[in-house]
Amino acid sequence: MAKTPVKYYVVDAFTDSAFKGNPAAVCLLEEERDEKWLQALAAEFNISQTCYLIRIVDSASPNPRFRLRWFTPVAEVKLCGHATLAAAHILFTTGLVNSDIIEFDTLSGILTAKKVPDVNPTHVSKIQNCFLIELNFPTVPITEFNSAEVSAISNALNGATMIDIKRTATADDLLVVLTSGKSVIEMKPQFDEILKCPGQGLIVSGVAPPDSEFDFISRFFCPKYGINEDPVCGSAHCALAPYWSEKLGKCDFIAYQASARAGILNLHFDEKNQRVLLRGKAVTVMEGTVLV
Hints:
Blueprint: E1 6-13, E2 22-28, H1 35-45, E3 49-55, E4 65-71, E5 76-77, H2 81-93, E6 101-106, E7 109-117, H3 123-127, E8 131-138, E9 142-144, H4 150-156, E10 162-168, E11 174-178, H5 181-186, H6 191-194, E12 202-207, E13 216-222, E14 227-230, H7 237-248, E15 252-257, E16 263-270, E17 275-280, E18 282-290
Parallel strand pairs: 2-3, 4-6, 11-12, 13-15
Antiparallel strand pairs: 1-2, 1-18, 3-4, 4-5, 6-7, 7-8, 8-17, 9-10, 10-11, 12-13, 13-14, 15-16, 16-17
């Protein structure tokens, strides 16, 4: 029997402008598909994340609930912020849900997305959807980095001066802190060398300049997952928020991810419950149908 065609959207997340932020493909499934097909379609889209939504019809929750999975072009991942934001954006803006809260059943547990007012709308966002989407994510614990491979990391960052190195406990990424946000922006990554580093991905961060509107600046490199530089990584900020909370003595941040496409994240670190609230916008740039 022929498979049901799959409706998809391409959404730019953590931005209010098309062709900025981080793109994600959002696929609405009416029936389960096998792993091989899910991974093959993600490779076909060949952007940082493709996510798959399927409605859970027998949920006991008062809020609409969907199963959500995330795939890079080469592998499934356990947590992805920007594709979750993109998925919530599609559900909210296309009328597929009649609720201000959506729940997602994921490999990282139940995650929620909520519509919140945009108290400082830009001219662009006034024309489009005048709300932010708030994601409620678990923090990503960080541990000390005890390794003799510091020289490999230095080579990967083209000799940039490092002042701290941590390791994330769940995703097994490295968190490398440079002397300033300016150094993060100017740093020239060596992707062949990043492949030789321990761990999976490489988060690089630094304090933003005092005259900046931001608190800290970051970039994220993950060539081992088929993504040389992730344009805007929400899950990386689940490690960055608690780190910078301790260093800067605050819980609310405006973060800037300094990729070529660039992105802005509004963050709140809930220390008591060990959660990170990520707030951002998204723009739908494409829609279509998968026929196979």
